[in-house]
Amino acid sequence: MGIDFNHLLELLPDINTAFFQTIYMIAISLLIAVVIGLPVGILLYVTDKGLFLENKVVQNVLGFVVNLIRSIPFIILLVALIPITNFIVGTTIGPTAASVSLSVAAIPFFARIVETALREIDRGVIEAAIAAGATPWMIIKDVLLLEARSGIISGVTLTLISLIGFSAMAGTVGGGGIGDLAIRFGYYRYDNTIMFATVLILIILVQVIQLLGDYIAKVVDKR
Q1: How many CB atoms sit inside 10 A of residue 111's CB?
Q2: Where is the ABC transmembrane type-1 domain (predicted)?
Q3: How many CB atoms lie within 10 A of CB 218?
Q4: What CATH code would you report for 5-220?
């Protein structure tokens, strides 16, 4: 039941490959989540009742879609998106294929975090900007994003950590990465050494990301 360090050294090339596959997956997914999730989160906020782009239809439709995707367990979402994944990337296995499902799961997750961060802004600041003649785009760019930047960065950190967990789950269906290595070697072959190594890598990765994210959030928080 102990750790065989000689065996661990033999597996280093596989561990190295799996680690960079995980980084590749979460990097792509995070980028897509931010690019799409940020405007979705902003729309969820500014179309709410009493705000400068109030639109009940947009608010309800977006809210429904976001809640729908978030309510589906990731492993089910992973399987349900197989046809779409195959259409987009031409395969259903490997880190690129897994990135499709990861992105779909991360977008609504991050969007809700952005919406929550924006709701913490004092509405008096927004009203002052409107009174000064600011356009909706100026309010979003110069008021909302500026005031909520610390919360949004914390949201990026939380999304990134969630993606690490999701990416490990994607390994169970051939997604590659640390999760795939843990399943193929650790679980199916009862290899305690590889299980220990993969768990340790994930713990360290999460801790580093959390510490870095907290630091950046504090630096940009001017309140």
Answers
A1: 29
A2: 19-213
A3: 11
A4: 1.10.3720.10
Say which amino acid occupies 85.
Answer: T
Q: Which CA distances in Å does 198 have to 19, 168, 173, 180, 194? A: 9, 10, 17, 10, 6
Evaluate the CA torsion angle 6, 10, 14, 17 in order and state its sign.
Answer: positive
Cα 104 to Cα 117: distance, rounded to the nearest angstrom? 21
Q: For 125-181, how does the pLDDT look when each residue is reduced to its tens digit (9 = 90+)?
A: 988 988 888 888 999 999 999 999 999 999 999 999 999 988 888 877 777 788 778
Taking residues 184-201, report their average pLDDT. 77
List the chain domain ranges.
Answer: 5-220
CA dihedral 204, 205, 206, 208 (to 10 degrees): 80
What the block records as the tokens of 108 is: 């609504």
DSSP state of 173: G
pTM for this one?
Answer: 0.89
Check: CB of residue 37 under 8 Å from CB of residue 106: yes
Distance CA 1, CA 81 (A): 38
Query: Mean pLDDT, to the nearest integer, of 15-26?
Result: 90
Task: Determine the Cα–Cα distance for residues 85 and 92; give it in Å rounded to an integer.
Answer: 6
Q: Is there a contact between 25 and 98 (Cβ–Cβ < 8 Å)? A: yes
